[in-house]
Amino acid sequence: MKRKQLLNNVSRGSAFGYQSKKLWLSAAIALLATLPSMAQRYVGGDMSMLPKYEAANTAYKDKQGNRIDNLLDFVKNEAGFNIIRLRLFVNPTGATGVVQDLNYVKTFGKRIKDAGLKLMLDFHYSDSWADPSNQWTPEAWTNLSDEELYQKIYDYTKACLEAMNEAGAMPDFIQTGNEISYGMLWGDKKNGQGKRCYTSNDANWPRFRSLLTQAGKACREVCPDAKIIIHTERTNNVSTTKGIYERLATIDYDIIGLSYYPEWHNNLSTLTNTLKTCHSSFPDKDIMIVETGYYNNWYPSNATYNFTSTWPASAEGQKKFLDDLVNAVKELEYVKGLLYWFPEENPYNNNHVYEPWYNHGLFNPNTGKVVDALFSLKPFLGNDQTALPSLQCDAVPPHHSPVYDLQGRVTNIPAGRHGICITNGRKIVNR
User: Fold this and answer.
1) For 265-284, what is each residue's pLDDT tens digit?
2) Which of 30, 122, 200, 354 might form a disulfide with 175, Cβ 3.0–4.6 angstroms?
3) What is the pTM of this model?
4) Contact 266/312 with Cβ under 8 angstroms?
């Protein structure tokens, strides 16, 4: 039963008598006590390249053209970001965007935490991009047997997390793999297909589950308060997405993480269908969209779906896409996070930090000024994430109305006294 429905029942308590009202109040209070965790939502982005842009003295500017001295503070204070995602490679190759080793992540992770932001750590378990078509085992691990690999992923995950904790960069959310729709650690790329997983057959799934189990075990031991995310990206195929998480039902994790890019994953109706199916099929799991984004200058010619008539590949189209996305998911209370991929991309005067130009950034590539789309994520949070949502905060309860304390007893809260009560079906907070 929803909070509003429950409290409406409380407000009709005159027909129940005191004991009935007390029972309703107890139930309402139990539900209200869970609201902070239920209500908490996160918006932010994967900003893994920011230290490289900063080192190149890239100019980030506000809408008036003033230079932004601290982009982390800016996205927190102006755009509502409360979480930053950061990727980690085993031995990064140094290719475009593949530069985040453990030292990089410890240093930047501490900055993120010191800024008062939550940190999501994204283990790629690879030396380069891990995605649906690339889940290759790190070169240094390729000669390990499966049994040795199970131990290795545990040891590696544990060592990384311990190092981050010691550095003051404890993650709040941990992805044990990146877009692992077809498994991970397939083996040496030179050996072809590798040990992929498909929902149409059982091959390699026991191995995949063992890898995730060992990675998750390390997370629980080192960071017991962190939430574990299993991240996939078959968002355009609801049956495949459901099938993946059904096959991973025995794994200890907290959050279903999804990627959603309309050019690969279809329209918003497809997304919401997948979200609703995941929620109904796995009601004990929260859901986060851990990657999304849209193009600001051109649209890829190899895209599976073309939405330029709905969302032009422009700054205006970016904003409309994010506005529409937020509107589509903000009422789904089980969707707890919405993270943009690579908002810090900024080709303006960046000394070739990231080439080729990916065309997803939320800064004008010709001026370095922030674009309006950066501020479109904030409404996903709701009105006030620092207090209980939809809470009526009156200084004094209405005169002559019965007032109940949190134990269901008739009481009064005089003006100036701090406390909480319920009256007329409303929770009153006297601050």
Assistant:
1) 999 999 999 999 999 999 99
2) 122
3) 0.82
4) no
